[in-house]
Amino acid sequence: MTDGAEQGRLRSAGAVVWRPGETGPEIALVHRPRYDDWSYPKGKREPAEHVLATAIREVAEETGLRVVLGRPLAPTVYPVASGMKQVHYWAARHIGEVGFVPNDEVDEVVWLPAEKARERLSYERDVAVLEDFCLGPMATVPLILLRHAEAGRKPDPTGPEWAAADLARPLDPSGLADADTLAGLLASYGRCRPVSSEAERCTATVRPYAAAVGVAVETEPAFTVASGHLPASVARAGAQRSAALAAAGEPAVICAHRENLPVLIGAAFGALGARPTDASPLRKGEFWVLQSADGALASAERHDLENLAEPGAAEARSAMRPPNCQRLAIEVGYPTPPEGRPTMADEIARAVESEIANLADRLTAPGPDECLRCFLMRMITEFGCDGTYRWTIRWRDVRAAATRNLLNQLSRRGGFCDCEVLMNVFPDYPQVSVALPCAGMSRLSSWKPCDLRRLRKSA
Prior knowledge:
alpha/beta
């Protein structure tokens, strides 16, 4: 893994930390005196650090809070002086405290109801993350499906007792190191019930995690592949067991083999009313995390030991996303806070960012008579969808600021991102080959789409 500059982007991670409040969730926000702004706890990834570990570490360092990660939220992407910065976020449930000490980086932590947090946040991109958090379930249950780490050489398949020798095959030194790394990553999701194949290489992969969270590893014959062969009866039993664990609503980790994991993964997704979005086999040490709520899939993300597997956190609603949704995270333009006495390089960088901000504001501004549907069609065509209501929120804040319940209305009609608003909320408007001019609206708070049928006839 690189030191956080993958694909030309500076990678960071953080969390929307929440706890139950009297009238709903309360959100933890941090104040940074250097910038005099309010945001979520987040920070840069350290060299050779996985983003899951970054999120947990940054929350603890900036707030003194202990958390368990839930469903991933849409990442934000924005320019900084050294390039483009991408921040991966998760919903994170507060489970304890290690103690907060005000410092030069963060001098205050506050808990606010979601609506108050929305008003306090300094950046629109953070408001969009909060909207994503509020639209989905807060409390979710993880089911992790993991392929075992690197093991020693397979025994001679022609020798005596080959099947027993293969089941007893241990992890090699690289696999043992990976198992220790996995212990920390899996612990990001809290205390889960580890259920493993009977093979030593599988139980050894989750043994450090089980020791770290204080639970015992359970072995499951239905998850065991002997002699590299998967009989149909064992596959069926494994699928039933995986589906049962997914539907049980109990945090669990399944560790199994290359041969049977596709069956187990498909059964787990199916039990939650969805299907896998990536059918490629898991590599050794790689894992899926399925978060569910009320028996339905809330998110699915895939991680390996080195990189954040793409599309990673943006898979939050993969089971519901339109197949052609590009999920391009586009967000540019924000005022750079003062950082003390600026250098000439600082001034140049700020001037460039200011120009980018002005350009981005002009390019993404709804027209004076542009309805929501036509604005979304234009924005998605030019910039793509990042899996959130980013462009819907942009239109609402400019054209219909009084319509505060617009997102809830769209959600009830089948919209969970900008692409889905186009495909599900306005399904009666046919596809057109070119973007057409807008018919206008009867009032500023209207979210009724332009009549593309009439426009199409005159195009």
